[in-house]
Every structure is written in C-alpha cells, then in structure tokens.
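Annex B, item 7. Sequence and structure tokens for protein A, then protein B.
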Amino acid sequence: MTDSGALTTITEHAGKDAFVSLDAWWRAATYLSVGQIYLRDNPLLRRPLEPEHIKPRLLGHFGTVPGLTLLYAHLNRVIAERGTEMLFIAGPGHGGPAMNAVSWLEGTWSATYPDMPRSEDGMRELFSRFSAPGGIPSHTSPHVPGSIQEGGELGYSLVHAYGAALDDPDLVVACVIGDGEAETAALSASWQSAAFLDPRTDGAVLPILHLNGWKIDNPTVMDRMPEQQLRDLVSGHGHDPIIVDLRDATDPIEIHSVMAHAMDRAFDLIAQIQRRARSAGGSESEQAPRWPMIVLRSRKGWTGPEEVDGEPVEGTWRSHQVPLEDVASSPDRLAQLERWLRSYRPDELFDERGVPTREVRDLVPEPMGATMSGTSRANGGLRRRDLVTPELAGEAVENVDRASNESATTVFGEWLGELVRANPRDLRIFAADELRSNRLAQGVLPATPKQWNQQQRGVDEDLASRGRVMEVLSEHLCQGWLEGYVLTGRHGLFTSYEAFVHVVDSMFNQYAKWLEAAATYPWRAELASFTYLLSSHVWRQDHNGFTHQDPGFLDLAARKSSDIVRLSLPPDANTLLVTMERAFTEPGRINVVVAGKQPEKQWFSLDAARRVVADGAGILPGAADAANGTDGDHDPDVVLACSGDVPTQEADAARELVLELAPSLRIRVVTVIDLLRLRAGEPQSLDDEAFATLFGEGVPIVFAFHGYPHLIKELLFDLPVTAGVSVRGYQERGSTTTPFDMLLQNEIDRFTLAADVLNRCRMDEDERAEALAVLANRREQAANHLHRFGVDDPALA
C-alpha cells in the first residue's frame, strides 16, 4: 500500500478517532461534488429522487474528484495537528466540484457568498447554480475561494506552486498534479523548479502526483510506467517519492491509515530539511536537498458507479466526466444515481438543517484564515505591499538630442537594480537565460546575484543560493513562477526575447482570462501587475535570422481588454523608464513592453517622457508641423505616425528627407506609446478630440509600426480617420542580414516612408516625381552598400 512507514505516525498525534473525521469529511465533500453535477433540488435526499430533481443538462467532471477530496481531507488533518500554513493547488482544475465542495464545508464559501450558507437551502443553491447559465463555472476559477489558477490551465500547477513558495518560508504548497497534466511540456519542465528553492528563505512545495490511469478516453503515460521506472524518473528530478497505492483498497480505516502515514512522512521530511538548512550550521554550499513527493494511485471515478449498462465505469475513462447520463429520462439510471448518492450516507454527514455534523466540522482548521480555502495567500491582493520606487532622475538620460545614443534597456537596468535593492523580499526578476543578452545585467547583477541552489563550478559568475533573479532556459517556468509569485501578493518582471515569448501564448491567455474573471468578484483584491519586457526584438534580430524575427505577441495581447492589458512601445530610454515605473506601481494589469537594447537616438527629456507616457501618444520633440524650419498654427499636410523605437527612428529620418526634397510640406511625427489607446470605445481610448489634436482632421496618415501592419488597421477602424491611412510594418520577411536590410526587405525604411508621405500630399507632380526618383536612387544605394560590404552605410545611423 505504501513504500515505508512514517517517521511520525497519526496515532502519535490524534489516535484512530481521527479516521472518523477523515472519512466523514471525504464522504461529505464527495457527496457535495456529485450533487453539483446532478441535482437541482432535494439536495439531502429527504424524499425519493424524482426526475424533476435532476438538472436538464449534466455538466462537470467526476473522475478526479474522489482523489482531490481525499487529499484535501488529509491535508486538513496536517494543518489541524501541526499548524502548517498551507496553500492547495488543484492541477486537475476540471475537478471544480471538489473545490467548491471543500470550500463550502469549511465555511469560506458561505462567508464569500452569503446566499449559499451551510444549510440545506445553501446546498440547494450550490447544486443548482453549478455549471448553469449565470451560475458557477464547472472548472476551478476565480470564483473559488482558495484557488489561484483556472481549471483550464493544464500543465501549470507545479510551476505556480513554486512561484507561490518563493520568499514565504512558513508556507507549504500542496500541489496535486493530474496524470494527464503530467504529460504536458510545461509540467515536465516544472520538476526542475526544485533546484531553485532555498530551504532557508523559501517555503516548500509538496508535489502529489495523482495517477488514476486515464485522460478523457486514453490511458496516461505515467500510470502505465513500470514502478521502478516511475521511481527513477521522479528521483532523477531530485525528489524522494512516497508511493501510495489505493487502487484495491476498500476498507476506510485502511485507506485513511495508509494516506495519513504518507502525509506524516512527507511533512516530517520537509520539516527536517528546513530545520537543517535554517540551523546555524546550514551551509550555502550544501547540496540541494531531496524534497519528498507523494505518488497517489487510485481508481478514476472512485466511489462512483462500478458499471453502467454492463460497461465498466469506475477505474476507467468512462468516469472522467458524467458517469451516469440521461438520468432524468431513465428510471433505472435514476435509481442507480440515488443508490450512488446514498452510498455516502448523507444523513450521517449533515443534520436536519443541512449543517455539516460535528464529525465533519472537526476536520476544519480554525480560524477560517488557517483553512486552505480561506488563506489570504490565495487572494494575493490582500497581501500585496506597494514597492519602494527609486527616483527616476538618478538614472534618466539628461542630454537628449538626435545625436545622443543610449541603450534603453541598459539605462532601465540601472534603475531596476536600485528597485531590487529597495525591495529585497517582494520583487523578483524572471529571465529566460537572457538577462545579460537583453542588457539588464550591468545594472541588476551588482544589486543581486542569480538564484542557484545546485552545485557550482569555479568559472560560474553571479550565482548564489539567495538571489532575486531566476534565470532558466524555459519561458514556461519564467511565466509560471511569476504568475505564482504575483498571485500570492508579490511583484516581478519577466524578460524575454520578443520572438520566443510565443512559447507562453496559452499561459498568457489563461492568466488574462483569470484577471478578467477575478475583476468581477469584489472580494478578490487587486494584484500587482504582471509585466513582460520584450527586447532583442524583430528589428534587431538580423544576426540571428528569420526564426528570431516575430513581433506577433502584440497581436495576441491586443485581443484582450485594455482594462487588463497595456501594450507599450517606448521609443527611447526615458520613456522606457517612465513606462516601467508605472508598470511596477499600477496594479491589476498585464503590461507588455517592447523596447530595444541597442544604442539609439533619444528623443524625450524625463519631464516630456512623463507627459507622453501619461497621454499614451504625443508629437515627437522637434517634429511638430515643421515647414521651412518653423511651426505653424494649422493642421499638417501629413502625419507620420510611429510606434516602436526603430519605427520612430525611421519616421524621423523620413521627415528630414521630405523636408529636404519638398521643404514647403508640413509634416508632424506622432509617436504612439500606449498602443491600445488607438482602439475606440474603451475607457482608456483617445477620444475624438484628443485624436484630432494629435492627428489633425482629415489629414492623411503614414504609419510606421513595430509589428504586423494589420493590427494598426484593426485598431484605427472605428476612429475618425477620413483621409486614409498607409501602414508599414513587419511583413514576414527576414534573414541573417543587417539591421537596415531588415527595414528594406519589409519596406519600412525611411526612403519608403518618405515616398509614402510624398504620395499622400498635394504637390506639384513634377516636383513629386523628381523627389521620388531621388528617394528610389538613395534606397538602391543603401541596398548596394550593405550587399557589397556586408554592413550598413554609416551615414544611415
């Protein structure tokens, strides 16, 4: 049944009487789960079950429920006996009925939703609203007290658990991993997270791999592994596995005894590891500990119908969702459902009012905040503390002109290092092996090393077991760690190459949906913002080639509400500083910031940067309707709009070319930093007046965009643009080439933009033709130079 005895047994804590409460809790939580799937009335079977008591649509997942409720019961026993501070993460999030049930039993559900009290009426409401229109989602979601992840987030449970455990030394995160989930790439990478956990300053994670054998209709790989291979696999990940096999168990005393002994052993080992590491003799060079984990084998759909219409159900894929279908229309199945529900003996579990009995309530930790459904860690906004933010003036670029060249990320990195120094326990940086490449290391690493809890070698640099930088070559881990960290009340930054952040597209989607859903529940406190810094972007990946050139993450993020997502493209160092200061101080958002790391021209003073970032867009300094060197009082002949650092550089160069060739034209350069301000109809949008102030009325627009052109066309669709828009951006053309050749290939270079401006303006046709010929000739010369010499013409800098 289990592979070894416990170091401390349950009988030494509470004796066999504890099994009574364990079994009562398990039956009650499982009964409530089944009731949610099937019943809309008669919740306690006070009368014989009738068709009208059954829901018209049967939705939900039962197969994983009995394992979840069993584990939750035994973790509650650990909390009650040891005072352990615990967070529960349910990887099989489609087991939503179980998470609703345990929260209702603990009283946190009723405290959160007073119209569903712990009573027969409250139970009826819980059942009838589950998976019903306008009711309770079938998966775990922000509606569940104690939850920090959406049920659809398959593969992310373990990485969330490790993110939650960072910098929380008193916490144990119990993470249940479904065996289908265990087959995903994100989960497979997550096992390596243990190598980054410092037992002295971080909490602990107890992975519980739940092997019940089946996915929707297919066996699971890890369940079919030979026992020794499974042990070798988890041992190779640095864990000491505790195997619990309950597939053939039927006696409640045996089931709970085996499970309790496994839990005691796991928590004793965690305590030993932390006590040893935190003692005076704990050595920083000590080898990383082997943390315990539990492997629970049980039958899928355990305690449910063994057979339906002669087909096996319990222990098979048929129990994954709704084991008994068409119940209301089949008297035989209705009777079978009633027998199933009564097998949990609800009369023993709930009194005449529907209140859980003493045997059930005995397993509820006190006070409510000690419960896993009531912990403030699962409502991280309650624990969020504002960061201490250093002044920007100390790092801002002072001498701003078109001749100055600064790396925006290098300047920001200096300020980020100061931010880390000022917030040594609430802020972490997560980097996919790119901190130095993205030019943040120069400022950050003097402030903090990179966390590394494995063996070190003499050539290693900037590694320590206590660092604020988490660097690993997995975007999945960086995203998941930061999600877990932010969801439990802390702050952080995820920096990545722009092209490779696509690895976490699905994770971004799920997290954005979590935030949108959470905002509809007033009891969910606002979290710190989740911030991406995407550098090494499409226009500066000429040396790495076509595979590294992709700005499409902006398209993905733009599909979300601007109430949640902000897309920022600061064109220089000072606008990046102001953008990131806002990202770290404004809660409740996902910030996607795209900024270059190469030395580039600087446009905005710090004060000007504050104004343009606050407005979301502004006129580029020195580029306001210039004609013959003067500014006018009327709308320009054309607006050269731009968004992104390289497009801003090319737009300004195009302006200079046009003024050289057609000095009577009035050209305004408008840089858009907050991209979603261009989308009409949302609270953050530029209104018609603000848009007209920047872009004029009836003025043609030539737009140079960092990403794919169609995004700008979509954003401008509902805005009052009456004279037409020409958009240039990335056209999926690239190679291993030069920076300017990238612009030429995608037709976003200054010569092409200048030609677009001339073609949009009213002017003498002969003058236009002559100017266009000059531009075409210069464009050809630039192409010939880079092809002949292998580098761009220095005159184009």
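Protein B:
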Amino acid sequence: MRRLLTLEEVYGLSARELTPMMKQYLEIKENYKDCILLFRLGDFYEAFFEDARKVSEALQIVLTSRNGNPMAGVPHHAVDQYVKKLLDAGYKVAICEQVEDPATAKGLVKREVTRVLTPGTLMEDDLLPSETNNYISILGEYKGRLALAISDISTGEVGTSTVMLEDAKDLLEKFRPSQLILQESLVEHKDYLTSGMSNLFVEVFENWNFAHSSSVEYVKRFYGLASLDVLELSETEVTVLGALFKYLEITQFKTFKHLSLPVKLQAPEYMLLDAATIENLSLLPSEKRGSLFETLKETATAMGARLLKKWILTPLTTRPEIEKRLDYVEAFVQDRLLHEEFREFLRRVFDIERIAARLSSGKAVPRDLQSLRSTLQILPYIKELFETNSVFLQIAEEIPDFSYERNLLETALEDEPSASPGDGNVIRAGYNREFDELRELLYSSKEKLQEFEQKEKSRTGINSLKVKYNKVFGYFIEVPKTQLAKIPDDYIRKQTLVNSERFITPELKGFEDKLLSASERIEVMERELFSEICQKLNDSADEFKRVAKILSAADVYQSFATVARKYGYTRPRFSEKRYLLLKNSRHPMVERYIRDFVPNSVVFDEERIFYILTGPNMSGKSTFIRQVALCAIMAQIGSFVPAAEAVLPIYDRVFTRIGARDDVAGGKSTFLVEMMETASILSKATEDSLVVLDEVGRGTSTFDGISIAWAVSEFIYEAIGCHTVFATHFTELTELASMYKGIKNITVAVEETDKGIIFLHKVIEGVAERSHGIEVAKLAGIPQVVLDRAKEILGVIVKSSALDKTVKVLTSEEITKIRKTKKGKMHRNQLSLFEGS
C-alpha cells in the first residue's frame, strides 16, 4: 500500500510547523488515502494539500492557502451539492465531522470520519435521480464461479445471480449501476466489463473481503437469520453478497436493516432481455430520440417511473400474472372517472419507498416527514376510491390504516417545516409542553419582560421601576433611590448607582437562565424530538415500503391506461399454441413522430414461423421488425399494445440483431460484433423465443455475407424453430421460401414513378425486385454524375456476378446434425452449412 508523503517530502514543512489541528487532519487522512477528505471547521468543510487542488479544479472554486498550505472549502449547509459534483468527477469523498461540541471541548475538538460517499451509496434525495434506481454492484468469485450482486440502498432492493463473465457484462449494461466493486483477482476483466459505460465508478476490493466463511456470517447477521437456506443462494452468491454488505458497513459505518431479501436477477418467471436487445429496441432512454420507457411513461410518481423501468427490463412469462396486470389496466380504461380521480390523488403521493429507507438508516429530514404525512393523508381517499370498483377491491384491502402514524405527523410536524431540525420551526406547537415554553420564551421574551415589569410595578407600587439588560450584569430591576423603601424582601441588590439601585429576583434570574439558554436548548431539544418521531415512524418502515409497492404498481397501471386511451392501444390476448396475430400494428415510438403512420399486420402460425423481409432502404423494414418485438414485450409487461387486434404467444426471450456498431476499445470490428451477437442468439434462443434480425452478414464480402445469412436462417428454422423476422437486402435468401415450408417471403411495397420511388411502407407478400439503393442515394443528395456512374457499374455487376442458383435444401442427416448442434455446443465452423457458389 502506498505511503502518504510527509509534509517535509511534499512541501518542505517540518513537524514543528504543524498546528495540532493539521496533525489531526493528517492522522485522519492517513486512513482515507483514496478519498478526498472534507474536514469540518466551523461552518465550512475544508480540504488541504493535494485534496484542495482536486476540489478547486472539480468545483471551480478558488484555491487559497493557510500558512502557505493549499486549502479549499465549501459551506456546510451546501455540502451535498458540492459532494455530488466531486462524485460525478470520479472521486470518493470522506466526510469528517466534529463529534463533540466546540463550546465544551477541552482543547482540540474531536473529529471523526462519519461516512464515505461513493456514487452507489447515496441516499439523500437531492443527490439521487428521482425516476431511476441508483444501483451499486459487486462482482466476485468463489471456487472458480462468478456471482454478481446489485443493490439500491436508497430503496432497499437487492438482487443476485451466478454468472459467466459475459452475463455479468450484460447485466451491468442492463441495470446501469453507478458503481461497480470488483474483486481484486478480477481486475484483468475491468476494461471488458466497463466498456461502453463511461460513467461507471469502479473500485477494487481486496480478495480477503470475499472469504466465504466471513461472508456467511455477514449475511446471517445482516438479515438476522440462523440459516441461509431460506435465501436459496449459491455459495458464490453468498460470498459476493457478504462482501457487498461488508463494503457498505465499512464505508457507511452502519448496517442497513432496510435492505430486502435478495431476489434472483435471472428468474424463470421473467423474460431475460440482453443488453443488445434493450439497446436495439430503444427500451430505455438514450441519446437517440424516443424510447419505450418515455413512450409509456404517464406515471405521476417517482416510484411509479422506477417500477415502469423495471417492468420494461423484466417482462413476465407467467400468463396469470400478465392477465392480472392487464385486468387493472382495463379497469382504469373503462372507468374513466376513477382513473382521473386516482391521477389527481397521486399528485399528493411522494416517494415513500426512499423515505422509508432513510427512516431506517437514520437519514430522514423534515421534508421527508412532510412528504410522508401528505401521502398518509391521501391514502384513505385512495382506499375509498378503489373500493368502488370490484377489480381494485384487493388493492384497497391491502392499504393499511396508518391512523397512528398520520396522527403523529399531524400533531408533531409543522405545516411547512424547516430544512433541518434545530431552529425551532420543525416541531408543531402543542406537541411538547417544555419545547413550547422554550420557544415561547425565545420568541416572546420582550412581551414576557414587559409582563414581568408590569407585575412588579403592581406588586411593589413603584411605577418608575424598570427591567433592563446589559452584557455585564444580564437582566436586572432598576429602582430609583427615592423608592427604595418599597423594595420587597426577595429583591437582591446587584449594583448601586448614583441615582438608582439594581436588583435581581429569583424569578427574574430563572427567566434569564431560561432565556439565555433557550436558543441552544431549542436546537438540542428539537433534534431530540425529531429523532424520537423518526424512531416511532421507523417501526412502520416495512409497512411504508409495502404500500409504496402497491401505489407504484397502481401508478404504472394507470400510466398504461392513459397511453392506451390516448393512442388507441388494444388489450392483447394470449394463445395457448404458438400463434401470433398483430392486426394493423404500429411502432409505439415512431408513430409519435410521423404523421399518418402506416400500420402493418403479421401472423405466425404452424405454416408461417420464419419471414424473410426484403425492400429498399428507408422503406420501413427496421421499423416493422422492431414493432413486432416491441408489441410482444409490451404485452408481457402488462401494457395494451398499438394494434387493432393482438393475439400473442408468451415468449421466453426476445432477441435482436440490428444495426452496425463496433467496439474499438475492445478491439472488435463491426462485423465481429455482428457475428458475436448472432452467435449469442443461435446458442440461447429456444423454440419459444422471438428473433428479429436486420442485415446479418452485411459487414463482410457479398458472397460471404449471403453464405452466413443463409446458414444462420437454416439453423434458426431447423434447429431452433422459433418465430423469426429477418430483414435483409440479400434477395438471394428468398429462395429459402421455396425450399422450406414454414419460411415465407414478405416485402415493403414501393411505387416507381418518373420522378423516382415513393415509399408506401406497406408490408405485403412477395420479394423486392431490387434494393433501390441508387434512388435512395439520390434522395440523400449524391451528385447526379455519381448516380449515373453507379447505374453503369450496377449493370455490369448484375450480369457478371449473379449468385449461382445451386443451393440445395438440407438433407435429413444435415438437419439432424444442426439440431444436435443446438442441443450441444455450437462451433463457428458449423455455421458453414452452405453448399453452392
């Protein structure tokens, strides 16, 4: 481990030149060398030496100095926003607090690091994206096997999976964590795992943290379990999960009791979507315009938006659960009044999922309790609303009463509390008598003194009596010497002046003591009262999380209903046999941006399981194949679909191979990436999958490409037998339709005119006569001289290089070989099942 350089080595300073505080700073910094240490000094957090330079550069603040030492500071009340910028710049940040009162400290104030902040350990509302989960992930190994665990500590979610290295990368791309903890022994795979994820913060965790025996104890202690059998985790998953909990405890100085029991990241009841499919179908927001998430997002809460994203990534594969979701969506569609009223109520529902997590971890602030109160107040109305519709009765019954918690918040919390407890504006009047007296004393001290003065005048008969204050003597009663005979026995002389005497009474002394300490006492007491309220509410944290799940799911249902009504979606039905009918289906994203979108229909049945789609560029081939896949995914997440009629099977997976991209950092060419994606489909797809392909084989020479595309098509048809749509410019592939019963040719219609071609965007049976590439080039603005020359060259090539039509249908022996290959391991040379030119 690298040694921290001494001041003499860095700045030429000797130990004698160090103040006690700087010595304290360096002693603490020694244990947090990999962090920027923010050191609390009064109202600021200061960074020194090299940390100061980093802070100054990252935050664009002035670099100052103290005794010649670089320093940079940020105000304590705004530290969160500065910390976020440091994290975004790729730094870890250690927060060093004053852990004793400077007013009562003897000598140097004691300081300790109370938390280490990393991108994946944030819980503060202002630091988190509201509609996206903030995952921390960890990858480790045990006995030669890998496991990945992820958690969003702001919501309490935990998931695990035993994986291969490529699966780990796929899951990382899918869940897009903000932080990856990588076991030291796996550092060699860092570049592969993180390629394409520029904002991923990676931290290496030493191997000893992944000891299986200690991980078992960590997981047991974390969940309070005597045995881990109930979790149904592999040994590797336990090892990695324990290492994650260890990391959280080390950096956060606590265990997180709000974390849920781990779920499987790859479970049979969910469709597994790989990263390529998520990207190719634009399921989640990206730099490209439009995504399925944005298209379906009419949610009214942050919880609902996060759940919608999860549902899109994990479509269901069990029909009863899908139908249950669709029933709720249909009920909202049919009961418009209930739908609109529920949307209105949702405006008062806040992110109680994260609020519950902050309550459990001791990080709740007054604004959290204000939001929780608003949500609990609206719950009875939502419950009553759902009781009016039989479909929602079960949801209504599951909504708890929360009368105790609601009453506590209504009686204890101000209507508009301050940002943090301590200034007397968080706890409502009437909640605590002593606190009310202190606040009343502080805020009405002038009136109290006037009342006391008037009472003393009446009691003594001395109308010239005055109650005064100065910094030396505090509060006192001043009486003219001519009235001294009327002074009561309880007056205690404090000072003699020329014309008057000053006195104190036990009552005034008590008032003075209370008043002078009221501000300090209010700060301490309000924090204590707020903490007590949070502890009482924390007893219901699990119930808050449960109702958060109910409300977020209902929010997604109404979001689906809103979109369905607005854009004319229909409820999908599911076929027992492998039958699909999409009548007049549309692309859910594209139709938002194109006027008069042309719908298209498609059928899969026993006679039609594989379509070869030809047509020119810009005709809509990619749009068509994508909309088939999107409709299938939408149906299985419980959404209505953009079609006049939709009957679908339940697919176990949807695969896509679309577009051309390379991986320069990974040393992979466009064609290699294309072949790797295709190979993954051929090895993972089953009879119950849906595969959409776009231009397989286009990244290499024409005949090589045709050969591969032909062989891939035969393999999918014979060895896998799944529903497939293959869009291609290789019209030679259409010969497959005459050779195999279940393969059909379809094309996108175009109209040729004297002025050029018109794209009709209508999918019909048949084969494209040609690709019309030169016509499309003309539309793009290619000079006419180039277009004319291209036509001449095309004529020569067509005459001299036509594909030899000697490809024969596979024999029964060859088909058997393909099917055996699918059951076993697929080798690249077995793609060469092409015989001919």
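Comment on protein B: The longest strand covers residues 743-753.
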